[in-house]
Amino acid sequence: MRKRPVVLVTRKLPEAVEDRLRRDYEPRLNPQDRLYESDELIALAAGADALLPCHTERLTAQLIARLPESVRAIANFSVGVDHVDLAAARARGIIVTNTPDVLTDATAELTILLMLGAARRASEGERLMRTGAWDSWSPSFMVGVQVTGKRLGIIGMGRVGQVTARRARGFDMTIHYHNRRRLSAGLEGGAIYHQTAEELLPHCDFLAMHCPATPETHRLLDGVRIALLPGGAIVVNTARGSVVDEEALITALKSGKLAAAGLDVYNNEPHINAAFRELPNTFLLPHIGSATRETRDAMGFRALDNLDAIFAGRAPRDRVA
Ligand code: DGY
What we know:
This protein is an alpha/beta fold.
């Protein structure tokens, strides 16, 4: 019988995904869901044919250089691949895949939650209820910003951006967007295209970041661009922390230039900038854009479909390097 490929799985995955791994591979699982240090990961990878990591593992050029010769593939359990040095993997002849499509709905849903939560001061309200501090009602109590009918600007009109736009239309929002390439009229669905972020920003009552983290998008939303937003705008981010200059965002939230921010992603997760916690006008979630049962199963299956293809000598559907 052909030897089953050995797969180092860096984090605890959904049951159904681990069952399939046990059925088709020789998996090295992580039942305690511990975050591996680099040395530990290299030791555990000895003799492995593939890695199945998450965005929590930083697969830097140095780490990739230390992987054993046996590793042929890195099948990520994530759509984002900014945690992998793709050039280093390519140089070693290691195939890298991701999991697009399957987390689009879940992430767009969370974007809408962040918009609503930030605009309607959900964090403050929840805190009042949980601490028992709510003591009265008045017409001026906890007044937020209405979402319905406002202009939503989207930076990065890929899969998630497009679904966010569709959901936002349910709130009668007018959609503006900036993307490297203009979408076809069918995909645009009436959204208004802006060739540059600078052109887009003055039209955004709400701004949703949906671009991938690349050197080009690093701190794309910086102080200069925040200044172009209308006063009282609301920024939400389900993409990656690195696409926003967090110090500039904090300054704008403190000054009132921005009414609020809804954030699911940060630089240096999980040790986020403490100012975000201290500000009353932030609505904060812990990087859970894809965290639904359906989506996490689908991400695992998609990563396994990619591995299946690689070990069957076929081209994986989601090859990124
Ligand atoms: C992704 O898939 O990129 C999500 O952020 C979870 O890692």
